[in-house]
Amino acid sequence: MNISRGASIATIATAIAGGIAADAFSLEIGEAASPAMPRRRIGTLEELKKRGAIDFTYPDKSSPARAVLLRNGEVVAFSLICTHMGCEVAYSRETESFDCPCHGSVFDAARSGAVERGPAPRALPEIQVTSTKDDVLYAVGLSAPIFGASESLRENQTIYGTEGDR
Ligand code: FES
User: Fold this and answer.
1) Position in ligand 1 atom list of the atom nearest CA 103
2) What separation in angstroms does the CA of 55 have from each of 35, 77, 81?
């Protein structure tokens, strides 16, 4: 099964949840919509199933992120930098939420990181995830700028593209 560059995270997650992951599927990533967004290995789907979550960094090595496997089988990933003032959020598997220890914001992992409780002004930046035919997961884009990111990353508020399938 091929999933085009325009495929949404939900589509990919649904495919994984539907058991396609077991048969392996490949993704075709087209040319970059934004050359700023790298393609970075997260880990394997098998590792994620075993551990429930995988920490990585994205889009650069100083930006913490986490991929999680939701109870409904979806694979989602988010920046761990709170959109309020930049504290690092923690993931709660029980509530499937990212919780900020600084001022109490809560983000819903099952609803694209939407703010469940403020004062955070906007959703946690979601990281677009794709998978290779051998179930290796890659981060390839970001839904919104990370708190404190450079101005060049603030220009585009939609899902960023990738540098291409490398
Ligand atoms: S920095 Fe996260 S709620 Fe204030």
Assistant:
1) 3
2) 24, 9, 13
